[in-house]
Every structure is written in structure tokens, then in C-alpha cells.
């Protein structure tokens, strides 16, 4: 949900992404119109939000080629990113779900069921957990990311981790799992820190085409700068998912997509912030 400043200088809203896109199409607003997400205080151009562009499609960030310095790269993102809006991520995810409910729920259901079934098979389940979980999640997150950016997204995109970045995602899954497990063995707190800090690693691999270690380090550094906010988002998402379980599991078809969407919105906010003025 957003609040915008109209041509008459008055504030309008809260309004949905779809309503603003209709205003853009009808000429009642443009990419220079000032707006802010509900729950935040920062006014920005509509064009600076991932949800909007001249065609209603956000411009994805450039793909990284060659080696990058994770510290320099992350420092630039940290300097440009606004404070993470926890409630805004949840509310925007809910609006995204409502905009294409059956497609998002159906794709999420297919991917999660395949993961659960594969994970229940002896030995194969161990391999899926250790090596392929990040490949599945990376593809599913990428599907949501395309939806958020207004790009065409199909079921095949939810499995694009196998075609676009299989090797890096496998390595990321393996290293994230092992380091997080070691962290939990070491007095638990380091494990919690790493589990939260690596939340964007799979997305950075499949979206920005980073190598596994660079993606992990950029994710860790970017999230560390706002670690408590990110932890709050994950806790709130977990609570929402639990509410789905209490709803005789049927609610999971709604709460899980909201959780995933909120996480991807957080990624878009912190890892694809607007350029410097």
C-alpha cells in the first residue's frame, strides 16, 4: 500500500499497487510523482519503487560479471537502502497475492509439495536437504521476484534454479547449511545470526548471477546492517505461517506465500535500492 502526493499537493491513499498503476496508465500520476510506502516516512519517486516503471514493469538490477568485492558491493547497497519496513513488506506481499491469487498459490503449492515428497524418500531426502533445497528455494524466490517486478512469470520460472544457476546454488546450499549447523553447535547464537544473515544468498545467486561465496558475503553484510529488522520480519512471517497451521493447514496456502513474498520484498528493498540522488 502507498500514499502519493497528487498534482494539487494533497496526499492520497493508502492505495494499492494496482490502483497506482491504473493512475500511471491514465496519466493521473507519473514516475516523478512523490510517494511513500505505508508505514514509512521516506518520500520517493514512484519510479524509484520496484513496483513501477513506464510499463508497470520494474527494471531489474544489472547482472554481475566477473569477480566482485563483497565488502565494496555490500557497502554501496547499505548506503542506498532505507530502513527495512517490516509491516510494509507484509502488506505489499498480501497485495501481490491478491493480485494473482491462484497462480501464486498454485505455483508455491507445486514446488513445496515436490520438496516435501522428495525429502521424504530415504537417502534422496538427505541429498535434497543438503544440496538441492537452495535450488528449489532459489527458483521459487525468482518466480516471486518476477511477479513483484511486474514481469511475466510462469511455473517453469519456479524451477529455474536448475537451469540458470544449478552449480552455484548447490554450493551455496551446502555451505550455508554447514556453516549454520556449525554456528548452532557453537552456543546457538552464531547459528541464529548466520541463518538470518544468509536469507538473501539464493536470490543473489539467481538474480545477480553472483558466485556462491560472494552472494553469501553480500547477503550477510547487507542484512547485518539491519539484522534486527530482518529478524523481526522472519519472526512475524513465522507467526503468520503458524496461523495457517492453526487454520487446519488450509491457511498455509495463504500464509506461506505471504511469508515468501515478504522475504522477497525485503530483498528488493535492501539489495536493489534506488540509485543515489
Shape: globular
What share of residues are in beta strands? Answer: 5-15%
Main sheet?
4 strands, antiparallel
Ends distance: 24 Å
| Unreliable runs | none
What is the average per-residue confidence, as pLDDT, rounded to a whole number?
A: 88
Structural class: mainly alpha
* Count of DSSP strands: 4
Q: Helix tally?
A: 12
What is the helix fraction of residues, given as a range? 55-70%
**What string, H for helix and E for strand, traces the elements in order?**
EEHEEHHHHHHHHHHH
Describe this protein's structure.
It is a single chain. By secondary structure, this protein is mainly α. It folds into two domains: 1-59, GYF domain (Dna Ligase, domain 1); 66-271, no CATH class. The protein has helices at residues 17-26, 70-80, 86-99, 101-120, 124-148, 161-164, 166-185, 189-197, 201-208, 212-224, 227-246, 252-271; strands at residues 2-5, 11-15, 34-37, 44-45. Strands 2-1-3-4 form a four-stranded antiparallel beta sheet. A hairpin with a 6-residue loop joins β3 and β4. α3 (86-99) packs across α11 (227-246). The relative contact order is 0.14. The mean pLDDT is 88.
Amino acid at each position: 500500500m502507498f500514499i502519493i502526493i497528487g498534482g494539487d499537493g494533497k496526499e492520497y491513499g493508502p492505495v494499492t499497487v494496482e490502483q497506482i498503476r491504473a493512475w500511471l496508465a491514465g496519466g493521473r500520476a507519473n514516475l516523478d510523482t512523490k510517494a511513500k510506502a505505508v508505514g514509512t516516512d521516506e518520500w520517493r519517486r514512484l519510479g524509484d519503487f520496484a513496483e513501477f516503471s513506464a510499463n508497470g514493469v520494474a527494471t531489474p538490477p544489472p547482472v554481475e560479471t566477473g569477480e566482485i568485492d563483497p565488502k565494496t558491493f555490500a557497502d554501496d547497497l547499505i548506503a542506498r537502502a532505507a530502513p527495512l519496513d517490516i509491516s510494509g513488506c507484509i502488506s505489499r506481499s498480501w497485495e501481490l497475492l491478491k493480485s494473482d491469487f491462484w497462480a501464486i498459490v498454485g505455483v508455491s503449492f507445486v514446488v513445496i509439495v515436490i520438496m516435501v515428497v522428495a525429502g521424504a524418500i530415504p537417502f534422496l531426502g538427505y541429498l535434497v536437504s543438503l544440496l538441492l533445497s537452495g535450488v528449489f528455494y532459489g527458483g521459487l524466490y525468482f518466480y516471486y521476484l518476477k511477479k513483484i517486478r511486474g514481469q511475466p512469470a510462469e511455473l517453469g520460472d519456479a524451477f529455474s534454479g536448475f537451469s540458470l544457476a544449478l552449480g552455484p546454488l548447490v554450493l551455496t546450499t551446502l555451505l550455508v547449511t554447514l556453516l549454520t549447523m556449525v554456528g548452532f553447535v557453537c552456543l546457538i547464537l552464531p547459528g541464529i545470526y548466520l541463518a538470518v544473515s544468509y536469507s538473501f544468498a539464493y536470490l543473489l545467486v539467481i538474480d545477480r548471477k553472483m558466485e556462491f561465496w560472494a552472494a553469501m558475503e553480500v547477503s550477510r553484510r547487507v542484512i547485518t546492517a539491519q539484522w534486527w529488522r530482518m529478524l523481526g520480519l522472519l519472526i512475524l512471517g513465522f507467526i503468520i505461517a503458524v496461523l495457517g497451521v492453526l487454520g487446519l493447514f488450509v491457511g498455509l496456502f495463504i500464509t506461506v506465500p505471504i511469508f515468501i513474498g515478504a522475504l522477497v520484498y525485503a530483498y528488493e528493498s535492501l539489495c536493489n535500492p534506488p540509485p543515489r540522488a
